[in-house]
Write a structure and sequence with these properties.
Elements lengths: L16 H12 L3 H14 L4 E7 L5 E6 L9 H4 L26 H7 L2 E7 L6 E7 L2 E2 L3 E3 L4 E7 L6 H6 L3 H18 L4 E6 L2 E6 L5 H14 L2 E8 L2 E8 L11 E5 L2 E3 L2 H10 L12 E6 L5 E2 L10 E2 L2 H17 L3 H5 L9 H4 L23 H6 L57 H4 L16 E3 L3 E5 L4 E5 H19 L22
Parallel strand pairs: 1-8, 12-14
Antiparallel strand pairs: 1-2, 2-7, 3-4, 3-7, 4-5, 4-6, 8-9, 10-11, 11-14, 12-13, 15-16, 17-18, 18-19
The structure holds adenosine-5'-diphosphate (ADP) and magnesium ion (MG).
């Protein structure tokens, strides 16, 4: 069989620079927040100690970034907006030792291609500043201007010449939320810088430099989170982990408040997110996610940051080791921390006013659709991996009675027994079946459960259903508890008591070291 080749094929030719820039912009610049991210990273790379972001209409109309960094000399201004032109690396070798945010030399060229772009910059040795205007990739002559040392970049009408992209932009409020998130990520990672964020002339954040990272976390996330921070610090070989995990009693319905910084760069990593979930296993309700703020420092040779256009994802040389370190550090910390004391009886999360404006990235109190009360389908592999020392043999988690997460409101009971059931006064927590497979605790089965007389309310009893669930009355209604999840919690508490009792603080790792990484799609 012969395949017909196209006859009207065009000759191969190199693409014009403007097309190359537009292609690069397609990868790197998705929305105003991407511009803000790139420009803020440039300002940090320039050694700025004061950085101000001002946006109008969610950044759709205007993004202006001012910094007091090192500035750009007049004769390099045009190069700065030329693709693949950078001051941050000089050869391929340096790609593996990058210590700056940028190194691809693409951002300014891409942004200037798809906007009305003005850059003013002044170095310490210059008598004045210089201004370069680029409209849709077409540069004008450079002019002198008055300004202090540093750089001011203004981007107007983003995507004005790429209407298809422009259509993808959302309402100004949504874009503003994304910009705020981009700002938060860079500002969180750099507490020693003075940060300002202004939207439509209104100051939303004014954050002077701070020594204490928890202060910066508090600035962004308020007292609910900052009072629940648990410090973590740990080094394994050249990899240093520091920062905070948040008490499991304060959690979210999504994983957006998991801030992981690698050598100062905000990253998303499915494997590390999985390690976080594992480290909180047994301490969170189903469908709830931990909140963490963790910095990882490692020699740049141990990680490839050149795998994602926006460098949001990286590739670790030894991801498994990092996974173990993260998991072990958090687990050990929890075992030596009295979580129940902090857990209290917090109602489901209230959104603070400072969080309110941050749009879609901030977690919200859960809705019916996103209920914290659903049971979680456990991951059998991870369950085996994380069996605590002295825990009973791993069960078959695929059976209908597989465990759920259990509320931190459970207090430890006597070893090996189901503790006397304690109702949750004032608590909104309960658990309901996971799926149809678990619908055995549906109404039809409830018919068979003897109803307690009203005068027994003072001393509620727990009833067992299908050898798996405990059901009891509360003042608000009823609670359904998965016994196996409860058992997990009891084991955790027993282990914790042992650790505290025997004063094993000197022991480095209580969680067994060997960890099998999950398959790529398991996180
Ligand atoms: P990259 O950051 O990958 O080098 P960019 O296109 O973002 O590429 O920037 C190109 C160059 O412009 C940078 O290498 C840097 O020398 C210079 N530059 C950009 N922004 C600033 C700034 N705010 N202050 C000083 N220099 C800057
Ligand atoms: Mg850059």
């Amino acid at each position: 069989m012969s395949i017909a080749l196209p006859t009207n094929r065009n000759p191969i030719r190199a693409l014009p620079i403007s097309v190359i820039n537009r292609i690069a912009a397609g990868e790197v610049i998705e929305r105003p927040a991407s511009v803000v991210k790139e420009l803020l990273e440039n300002s940090v790379d320039a050694g700025a100690t004061k950085i101000e972001v001002a946006i109008e209409n969610g950044g759709i109309d205007l993004i202006r970034i001012c910094d007091n960094g090192c500035g750009i000399p007049r004769d390099e201004l045009t190069l700065a907006v030329t693709s693949h032109a950078t001051s941050k690396i000089t050869d391929a070798e340096e790609l593996f030792r990058v210590c700056t945010f940028g190194f691809r030399g693409e951002a300014l060229a891409s942004i200037a291609e798809i906007s009305q772009f003005t850059m003013r910059s002044r170095t310490a040795v210059a008598d004045c500043g210089y201004e370069l205007i680029v409209n849709g990739g077409v540069a004008e002559d450079i002019d002198a201007c008055g300004m202090p040392e540093g750089t001011i970049i203004e981007i107007r009408n983003l995507f004005y010449n790429t209407p298809v992209r422009r259509k993808f932009m959302r309402a100004a409020q949504t874009e503003r939320g994304h910009v705020a998130e981009a700002f938060t990520r860079v500002a969180l990672a750099n507490p020693d810088i003075h940060w300002t964020l202004v939207h439509n002339g209104q100051v939303h954040y004014e954050l002077p430099p701070v020594d204490d990272w928890s202060q910066r976390i508090s600035d962004f996330f308020g007292p609910e989170i900052s009072t629940a921070l648990i410090p973590i610090e740990n080094s394994v070989d050249d990899v240093h982990l520091s920062g905070y995990v948040v008490d499991p009693a304060v959690n979210r319905a999504n994983n957006r408040l998991q801030y992981l910084f690698l050598n100062g760069r905000y990253i998303r990593d499915r494997s590390l997110q999985h390690a976080l979930s594992e480290s909180y296993r047994g301490l969170l309700m189903t469908g709830r996610y931990p909140i963490v703020f963790l910095k990882m420092q490692m020699p740049p040779q141990l990680v490839d940051v050149n795998v994602h256009p926006a460098k949001l994802e990286v590739r670790f040389q030894d991801g498994g080791k990092l996974y173990s370190q993260l998991l072990g550090s958090i687990r050990n910390k929890f075992l030596s921390t009295d979580l129940t004391a902090k857990a209290g009886l917090n109602p489901p999360v209230q959104t603070s006013p400072s969080q309110e404006w941050r749009g879609p990235e901030i977690s919200r109190p859960s809705t019916g659709h996103d209920s914290p009360y659903r049971l979680q389908t456990p991951d059998p592999q991870s369950q085996e991996r994380l069996a605590f020392p002295n825990s009973p043999p791993a069960r078959d988690w695929t059976q209908p009675s597989a465990p759920s997460m259990v509320s931190p409101h459970f207090q430890s009971g006597r070893p090996g027994t189901i503790p006397e059931f304690q109702p949750f006064p004032n608590s909104g927590y309960s658990a309901v079946p996971r799926s149809e497979a678990d619908s055995s605790v549906g109404t039809e089965n409830l018919d068979r459960i003897p109803v307690q007389p009203a005068d027994h309310r003072a001393r509620p009893m727990a009833l067992q259903v299908h050898n798996t669930y405990l059901i009891s009355e509360t003042e608000e209604g009823m609670v359904v508890i998965d016994q196996h999840a409860l058992h997990e919690r009891i084991i955790y508490e027993q282990l914790r008591e042992k650790v505290l009792g025997k004063k094993l603080e000197s022991q480095k790792l209580l969680v067994p070291e060997p960890v099998t990484l999950p398959p790529a799609d398991a996180a």
